[in-house]
């Protein structure tokens, strides 16, 4: 038998790897919600446009990015499976239909723009335009439902707190979409899109308040009033205020810069309320569900090598396609 020495019996460099991987899983989820979130938001805002050129501009804005952004969801599933296989199995078996709903929504959202561009008759584009909106709204809705049920240990398909969280996630993606379009559009379209930002952030904050109120009353065991959750709530309020001020002053780079703060605060709040549990419905804590030391060390080394390459790829992608959409550009 091969002797791996301390590498098989002790955490790498004495680090708290189980906690780091818990944080990494939620970091990856936040990256997906941030990057694909503005794609979803643009899809929702697509419903507000009647002009063909404006619709083409919105599609062209996300064209180079959306499929790459979805990779983070695959990475999230892979990281969860690799580090916490029991949790992966439990979540996906308990929420089997919800997982397929998320997958179906993502398929519709990805297919619809491709089909929209294939023919230029009104009925065809109306149908696929609506499909694009439905996919863009339903994907974050189902994702929010999944996150709420994960946190609260709910095993049913739908619940009232889950629906409220799902609506909050949809509102957050519209906030992100407005911020992104502030960078990718010009003129009247840019100003018109910006007008939806304050409405979306107000809806998001209102829904978050409802959820937090529910948790304080019905689930005090989660510790909503603990220092870290309260700090994340304060960060959310500050970022929301900065977002609105930036939009009103037409400082669109600053407005978009507020979006990852809002997204990471939201996902961080879910993680903070969950920890040290990772699967409340099954009674599994992080230490219960983590894999053994040897594979954990191997995965840590692999992640340390691969994640910088992933970030470098996205850096190149976004720098290559930076700047507003020019007249005449299209999705295809």
TrEMBL record:
The keyword Mitochondrion does not apply. It is a multi-pass membrane protein. The chain crosses the membrane at residues 20-48, 69-89, 95-112, 132-152, 158-181, 201-218, 224-247, 254-278, 290-314. Its main location: membrane. Pfam families: Cyt_bd_oxida_II (PF02322). This is Cytochrome D ubiquinol oxidase subunit II. The keyword Phosphoprotein does not apply. One of its GO terms (cellular component) is plasma membrane. GO terms for biological process: aerobic electron transport chain. Keywords: Cell membrane, Membrane, Transmembrane, Transmembrane helix. GO terms for molecular function: electron transfer activity; oxidoreductase activity, acting on diphenols and related substances as donors, oxygen as acceptor. It is found in: Cell membrane. The lineage of its organism: Archaea, Methanobacteriati, Methanobacteriota, Stenosarchaea group, Halobacteria. It comes from Haloferax profundi.
